[in-house]
Design goal:
single chain, 288 residues, 6-stranded mixed β-sheet, 13 strands, 34% helix, binds adenosine-5'-triphosphate
Length: 288
């Protein structure tokens, strides 16, 4: 398998927080969603792999090339969108183009114009007068106009209304129709990831708890509402975590179909990404 990004043992230590030995292989041509509660380290991870914050690692490569040795070339292939625009709000899309056409070798004026038209964005209006949705669409117009191979989004869809979010998810989907394109996206809105992610990376308190394919998660995890007896009957290896409710115990299991074949009358539901996250974060059971 070809990897767009490979990270080995990436560590970043702040006074009250550390990102601990995160290792990830992001397959080329996929959408990888990073989830985790507030302060889990999602932005720190993204900023570290972009060199915005200094971090230690054994390996950080993009398309097999070492990041530090090839930073300038690698950045040509990256488009990064944060939750707020980083451009001077006094600039217009025209001025932004003047700057970026000198920054990116592959800047495509016609493509930029076509995206501005598609998103109904004025060329000569200062972006301070743009709505949040318009600013976000401008970021996408820019990202798609310099032939980026990797799109990195850090909470870029938060604060947008469902209609614009849906448009943006469609844009991301269209971007990944090209198998050379890869997307890494951190989001609180796990239902967005349900729609587009091929893989989910779960960060918890600075550690990577898992990276799994979305399909694997969908097929394997299950939630059972039962009693303590049931909890004791199930194999400990199948239990991810459980949460004591007032009158029952909710159990997250990782071999739903296997358990169902043994306990045929047992009701096992398929959890959402958010529920899986909740069990790992709040449930009882040693993790890692
Ligand atoms: N420059 C910094 N100096 C000190 N601590 C920092 C710095 N940047 C981030 N942190 C700390 O690192 C931890 C992880 O923050 P980070 O923003 O990476 O989490 P996150 O998962 O992106 O959170 P959120 O979902 O709330 O955006 C937090 O405890 C934060 O206070």
């Amino acid at each position: 398998m070809d990897f767009a990004i490979e990270i080995e043992h990436l560590t970043k230590v702040f006074k009250d927080f550390s990102l601990n030995h995160v290792s990830l292989k992001i397959p080329k041509g996929t959408v990888v969603g990073i989830i985790g509660e507030n302060g889990a380290g999602k932005s720190t991870l993204i900023q570290s792999i972009l060199g915005i914050v200094d971090s230690q690692y054994d390996k950080l490569t993009y398309f097999g090339k070492d990041f530090k040795q090839n930073e300038k070339n690698i950045k040509e292939d990256l488009a990064v969108i944060f939750d707020t625009t980083h451009y001077d709000l006094e600039l217009t899309p025209r001025w932004i183009e003047r700057i970026l056409s000198r920054t990116f070798q592959n800047w495509n004026h016609e493509l930029y114009q076509s995206y501005l038209q598609k998103f109904e964005l004025p060329y000569d209006k200062k972006i301070k007068l743009f709505s949040r949705g318009m600013k976000m669409k401008l970021e996408f117009a820019i990202a798609f106009s310099h032939d980026a191979k990797i799109l990195i989004l850090d909470e870029a869809t938060s604060g947008l209304d469902p209609i614009i979010r849906d448009e943006i998810l469609n844009l991301i989907r269209a971007f990944t129709e090209d198998e050379n394109h890869t997307v890494l996206i951190s989001s609180h809105i796990t239902s967005d990831l349900d729609k587009i992610a091929d893989y989910i990376v779960y960060l918890y308190k600075g550690k990577c708890i898992f990276m799994q394919t979305y399909d694997e998660m969908n097929e394997n995890y299950g939630i059972i509402h039962g009693t303590k007896d049931l909890l004791n009957t199930l194999s400990q290896d199948d239990i991810v975590a459980y949460i004591q409710e007032p009158y029952s115990i909710s159990i997250l299991v990782k071999n739903r179909q296997q358990i169902q074949s043994v306990f045929q009358d047992l009701e096992i539901t398929r959890p959402t990404i958010e529920e899986i996250m909740l069990f790992y974060a709040k449930g009882v059971k040693e993790i890692c």
